[in-house]
Amino acid sequence: MTTHQEAIEHHPDELELGHQFEDIEQQTEAYTVGMWVFLVTEIMFFGGLFAAYIVYRALYPEIWYAAHEKLDKVLGGVNTAVLLTSSFTMALAVRSAMLNRWKAQVSYLLATMAFAITFLVIKYFEYKEKFEHHLFPGPNFNFGDPGVPNDKAQMFFNLYFAMTGLHGAHVLIGVIVMIALVIRTINMRNQRQDFIPVELAGLYWHFVDIVWIFLFPLLYLIGR
Amino acid sequence: MTEPGGKTVQKNYLNADYSIKSWLFTLDHKRIGILYLLTICVFFAIGGTMAALIRLELLTPKSDFFTSDTYNKLFTLHGVILIFFFLIPSIPAFLGNFLIPLMIGARDVAFPRLNLFSWYIFTLGGLIAFGALVVGGVDTGWTFYTPYSSSFAQTAVTATVAAAFIAGFSSIFTGLNFIVTIHKMRAPGMTWYRLPLFVWAHYATSVIMVLGTPVVAITLFLVGLERVLGIGIFDPAKGGDPILFQHLFWFYSHPAVYIMILPAMGVISELITCFSHRKIFGYEFVAYSSIAIAIIGFLVWGHHLFTSGQSRFASIVFSFLTFLVAIPSAVKIFNWTATLYKGRVRFESPMLFALGFIGLFTIGGLTGLYLASLGMDIPLQDTYFVVAHFHYIMVGGAIMGFLGGLHFWWPKITGRMYPEAFGKLSALVVFIGFNLTFLPQFILGYLGMPRRYASYPEEWQVLHVLSSAGASILTVGYLITATYLIWSVFCGEKAPANPWGAKGLEWQTATPPIPDNFEHRPIVREEAYAYEENVKGAA
Ligand code: HEM
Ligand SMILES: [Cu+2]
Predict the structure, then answer these.
(1) CA–CA gap between residue B303 and residue B323 (Å, rounded)
(2) Among B46, B399, B140, B460, which residue's Cα sits nearest to residue B468?
(3) Does chain A have fewer CB atoms within 10 Å around its N or its C terminus?
């Protein structure tokens, strides 16, 4: 918080001020509150899916256990590590922005982006494998274990794809945001820059990370 | 954005630039409010036409104007359009957008671009809903209950669900914008306890929008996925649970009924104080009752599932919680009444709408208590009693509030007065037409007429004919209003800055307001509604 305050004070008035605001401080606070409220809506968005997850897991615990065995814990674990690291590089990017070190900021953003893309690539292979084994919900779904009712097992994969799919979409949006930030930073390299956009993107990115921290044990690690 | 204009013609937000482009790309919250007003009026007209067709069909016991399929599509789109595309955005997106920055002494909302974007996606959602109508309509009812909506309906459910989904984002962004604006953009001296109650009501509404809408969005999204990809989260044939859909749907949609009514309550608080020329009785109570409604509103959704097969225990808990939510609503009614008492009451047309609101909302709320009692709800569930209940609140309450607010701030918004005599006439006709339409429906429901049927036994015809006659009167009332309001835009008398002698920052700026709202940032030095009481007691 102190760096935040200091950084505001270091900023001269030449920063862009929206017509609706009185001063930079008000603008900064408004953007920050706005981001937090947005994250609350995001929590509620995922909340509906988590509620569905809880209901069905309580209804069919054994099937849930059987179904989760088909997920690849190693790939999931690697992805968790990748995402956590990306959160770290993102935090460094925010810090570089506050200190107005644009080169460092760009490289940390690029690193974060690289991790995000790695995450998506790994997810792609996971999805592909599920497809090939008829574990994608729909008419061709076939769990392949006579002891487990097909339709109930499908429910697990319904939720698996819905939740990780929505999360993946958020990762993708994060990548797009980071591209925009990199371009912006390079374009404005000779000016003092407003660090708020990076800071807000950072908040978003940590949120995406946290959602995964919940998804990973709930989907991959049931019963451990 | 503009220099304070020369002495000749004062620049205001309307005449600052006349081009279409300046409207379609405007970032001015006042103009965006007007854009919303125009769009929702179109939706209101279309949804209203469908209501008229429904009442036409119900004139006779047989289904002779439409097939039952067509009838199902009529009431579904009637509900979808009027709820998602009229009632939910009506007061917040139009009056809220226009007034909140003015009332708190800000130049604009916190995120003007997001605000404009909200209007675009709202309109897009509306167009998709119409598209669905053209492609073949929807027959699921506005609640989209699964598994019918997800697996069986042969109609344009996917498109309609997508339309509601998209419009939901407009609602989320509007709520987000209001919360940040109210937190961070208040003028010096505008403390929380000096905020107009209209702003408090919108704050509570925004909280519901932000917390509830994402849940219904994801739920509708899953219904869409079930239709498109054939997954089955809510489909019992695939191991899914349709009751889960109902829980998730009502988790939003019960609070959503408060999105429709809380802003209207905010309007009524403004009107009652202004026209009784008195500080509102128990300001804090009225303010906090809005917050209480928002919070408790999230705990009562299960009263829509009494007959769905949820556990008996859950039903009892939800029934009890539902009774609780009536308390903050009653607090408001009592405080308004206490304000009127000993006030110097003037019966201008906005006030007539406000009084109408109080009467109709009270009836709607009390019948809600009937429905919340488990024993009563079993026979009344899905009858016309429920239909009458929610129309009393949503049409009687929310639309009365909307019309009252529209008349009250009309001079500020357009710079013109409307003909007061016609305003009173309209309030009267709407009130009579409304009661004639919906009172008989309570009786019909009590007698056992189920909702959503195109035909019924002959002995109920008299009541249905009365109801249809009332609907015609109601329509006439709306048409009168539309006519003289449109007339007044072009030919009305020029309005003074503060025609009602009201308090509040919005009345202290030019009429219509200048693009930047205020010449100088206002500084607030008094409480809200600081009307001088007891001065010139004889007046
Ligand atoms: C404040 C504004 C209110 C609005 C806008 C409103 C609106 C509605 C709507 C739209 C429905 C029907 C939903 C459907 O099935 O399509 C409904 C049903 C119901 N309302 Fe309200 N309501 C309000 C207040 C209340 C209150 C204060 C109570 C109780 C204290 C209440 C209790 C109920 C119950 C129990 C039902 C379910 C009836 C049934 O389907 O059997 N409502 N309300
Ligand atoms: Cu309800």
Answers:
(1) 10
(2) B460
(3) N
Q: Give percent of chain B with pLDDT exceeding 90.
A: 86
Q: Which two tokens stand for residue B386?
A: 């429920």
**Cβ–Cβ under 8 Å, residues B539 and B344:** yes
Cα B458 from chain centre: 35
Q: How many residues does chain A have?
A: 224
Any atom of ligand 1 within 6 Å of the Cβ of B368? yes
Burial (CB < 10 A; 0-12, 13-18, 19+), residue B64, is exposed
Measured over the CA atoms of residue A58, residue A62, residue A65 and residue A66, the dihedral's sign is negative
Run of H or E including B128: helix B112-135
Chain A residues in contact with B217 (beta carbon < 8 A): 45
| Residue partners of B124: CB distance under 8 A and separation at least 6 | B166
| Residues of chain A contacting residue B225, judged by C-beta atoms under 8 Å apart | 162
List CB contacts of B387: < 8 A, sequence separation 6 or more: B441, B445, B451
Nearest one of B156, B271, B189 to B529, comparing CA atoms: B271
ipTM for the predicted complex: 0.90
pLDDT digits (tens, 9 = 90+) for B217-244: 999 999 998 998 888 889 888 778 899 9
Q: Residue B124: how many CA atoms within 13 Å on its side-chain side?
A: 13
d(CA B383, CA B445) in angstroms, rounded, equals 5
Q: Which of B86, B88, B257, B307 to mutate to test the pocket of ligand 1 (most atoms within 8 A of CB)?
A: B257
Nearest CA to B32 out of B118, B105, B90, B110 is that of B118
